């Protein structure tokens, strides 16, 4: 907020019938609200970024952990009864 910004607002509030201090108070509170809104938006953006990063991390991890591929041989081995005594 530059000086001209304040002067324009002051004129506006003075026209509305507020005295100088009342006008200043209105301007200050308006600026504070604006600032708060901006900060809130920034925080929300950061939160979004964080979530995106987490999601990406999870996806990468998933890609790294390759699922076990069943081959025909491994399926056959699993079907065999390993506990039966082998014929001599």
From TrEMBL:
Q: Which keywords describe this protein according to UniProt?
A: Signal
Q: Where is this region: Disordered?
A: 29-88
Q: Where is the signal peptide?
A: 1-20
- Keyword Signal (UniProt): yes
**Where are the compositionally biased (Basic residues) regions?**
31-40, 49-69
Q: What is this protein called?
A: Uncharacterized protein
Species annotation: Scomber scombrus (Atlantic mackerel)
